[in-house]
Amino acid sequence: MREVIVEIVQKAKETAEERDVLINTLHEIQKRFDNFIPPEAAEIVAEELGVPLSRVYEVLTFYTMFSTKPKGKYVIRVCESLPCHVENGREVVKALKEILKIDFGQTTSDGLFTLEMTSCLGLCGVAPVIMVNDEYYGNMTPGRVKDLIDRLRGESL
Amino acid sequence: MKPITVLVSVDSNSVLMGARHFLNYFRDLVKEHNLEDTVDVLETGSMGIYPEGVIVSVLPDGVFYVVRNELDVKRIFEEHILKGRRVFDLEVPESQIKGTVEVEKVAEETRIVLKNVGEIDPTRIEEYIARDGYFALAKALQMEPGEVIEEIKRSGLRGRGGAGFPTGLKWEFTYKASADQKYVLCNADEGEPGTFKDRLIMEGDPHSLIEGMIIAGYAVGATKGYIYIRGEYHSSIEILKKAVERAYEYGFLGENILGSGFNFDLKIRLGAGAYVAGEETALIESIEGKPARPRLKPPYPPTFGLFGKPTVVNNVETFVNVPRIIMNGAEWFKKFGTESSPGTKVFSLVGNVVRKGIVEVPMGVTVRDLIFKFGGGIEGGRKLKVVQTGGSAGTFIGPDKLDVPLDFDSYAKYGVSLGSGVILVADETHCVVDLALTVMRFFEHESCGKCTPCREGTRMIVNILERISRGEGKKEDLDTLREIARNAGETSFCGLGQSIPVPLLSIVDNFEEEFRAHIGADKCPVGVCEFKKKKEKKKIGVRKP
């Protein structure tokens, strides 16, 4: 792990001004380590950048896109802002919670799905919108939610 | 150029409706018929409104179609391309797509910001240059920096991020501040719910933004710039990264730009999911690698910004206006819009309207025109009930205020805010308590926690609204809500908390009757809120034999 992280930090240092390396580094690390930043990784980053570990965690826990806990294989982010809400977004949220049997911030016991809420994704032309890892899905309905989850479950068998 | 061009809108909204698939299918059909020398199938950015399908235009005929499935693609190909017959039932008039409200008055010139969006291939810098791209930069570099600032000042351009601060003035402050290093930042942290104009501008015409930023850099004496984009905007990030590379290759960025001796470097920084980062000082903190917590103001960024240096921060749409103003002059720009807010505004139409999407119209347009003329009215023929203008921190209005002309002063004058240009429509099936609760939950979630009035205020507001929506509202609740809103507005640290009263007071005041109808009632008057069943008192009586 150490080599990977040192390499990421070095690469970020090359393209950045002196003090703005941290966020880009964390983005990169999260990409490599399955949607979260392991405690060991945070420690190495602090060492490499010569900043206290608390600084790293301050940033890490402030931004919603970073996670300190492992997540499911599929991270489902559902928009809870008004433009989706008024287009039956509430039903979509309900369907997700019912089908996955989890609430926001939780992961299914089989480790497949994590459910999160997100603010507006800027795709209101096709509201309601959800995001599964890096993919967007628009014009969602409870029925389409079920189809999507079934398909993802099937793919991971 | 080939005799026939088919343009397909492949922006991020259209992609979800199958745009890429349709594009490939068009290309397959062209190949199948050996028409590769005659027909070009190209991708472009958003052409405007989404009537529940992907917009395709056929040139040089200038016909616009809405494609919903493969069959539509096939019909357009077989009828229009092969036989030259237009497919009328799939056609949409150009005026509906591009939203040129004043076609008669200023003919085709209402698209100032979106001039190239939906017209060019955003990945090809050559197409941008062919449409006078980077000409404004060349012109600006021949002017004195002070002259550039003067031109922007005279144009009356105001910040399109929502606050409407005069752009030229901001530049002048930064210009006058003396420092060894200055910066230009683009606020592309588009997080205002319902707003997706900046996304479509960046995806459809990235070079206009880059050109605007270089001109700003030259004007204020900055040699470094950053574009701060939301981490969730994958496609905007990719397109902009490539565009920046191209601009370096062509010598529009880097050292000695166009032989002028002026140097400018541009970098892209990603956000990581924090709405408050859209506040300019919070954005600066985030670029510096810290949590995006707003700074105490003053000092303002023009004197003390990124890394403590003088910094210009402008929104994407604001920067895109700059090359147009430099090319055509301040007088030309002032012909559009209202006296206090010249130019156009890109609006995002969302919610229960027939056609959702972005439209660019002159400032001073009415909410009614936006919804009924460009948005095509309310979905399913239902009645309009509530419109939220300006984004989450914007005002909720009823049908009685639809004729207010929107510009930066409409909030002060009529209590209808322009904000980031969102027009969010909710029809009669929605309940105002539920809408208020959704918006205030957003504020609660996005409050950074730094100051008490915002952190605790939003929590108390959500608690009260939840209580009302459970059917347990108390008579004094509305007054308490008003009081908390006013306190948060007056005492919060930054714009986020300070703007709480705008949505909350407007919805409570404009729809007070419906709020009251929830209190002491058995069920939600609209049937949206799920009231808790009241415990029935056990009846004591004699059991019948």
UniProtKB/TrEMBL annotation, chain A:
<dbReference type="InterPro" id="IPR036249">
    <property type="entry name" value="Thioredoxin-like_sf"/>
</dbReference>
<feature type="binding site">
    <location>
        <position position="120"/>
    </location>
    <ligand>
        <name>[2Fe-2S] cluster</name>
    </ligand>
</feature>
<dbReference type="InterPro" id="IPR042128">
    <property type="entry name" value="NuoE_dom"/>
</dbReference>
<keyword id="KW-0001">2Fe-2S</keyword>
<protein>
    <submittedName>
        <fullName>NADH-quinone oxidoreductase, E subunit</fullName>
    </submittedName>
</protein>
<comment type="similarity">
    <text>Belongs to the complex I 24 kDa subunit family.</text>
</comment>
<dbReference type="GO" id="GO:0016491">
    <property type="term" value="F:oxidoreductase activity"/>
</dbReference>
<keyword id="KW-0408">Iron</keyword>
<dbReference type="GO" id="GO:0046872">
    <property type="term" value="F:metal ion binding"/>
</dbReference>
<dbReference type="GO" id="GO:0051537">
    <property type="term" value="F:2 iron, 2 sulfur cluster binding"/>
</dbReference>
<feature type="binding site">
    <location>
        <position position="84"/>
    </location>
    <ligand>
        <name>[2Fe-2S] cluster</name>
    </ligand>
</feature>
<keyword id="KW-0479">Metal-binding</keyword>
<dbReference type="InterPro" id="IPR002023">
    <property type="entry name" value="NuoE-like"/>
</dbReference>
<dbReference type="InterPro" id="IPR041921">
    <property type="entry name" value="NuoE_N"/>
</dbReference>
<dbReference type="InterPro" id="IPR028431">
    <property type="entry name" value="NADP_DH_HndA-like"/>
</dbReference>
<dbReference type="Pfam" id="PF01257">
    <property type="entry name" value="2Fe-2S_thioredx"/>
</dbReference>
<keyword id="KW-0411">Iron-sulfur</keyword>
<feature type="binding site">
    <location>
        <position position="79"/>
    </location>
    <ligand>
        <name>[2Fe-2S] cluster</name>
    </ligand>
</feature>
<feature type="binding site">
    <location>
        <position position="124"/>
    </location>
    <ligand>
        <name>[2Fe-2S] cluster</name>
    </ligand>
</feature>
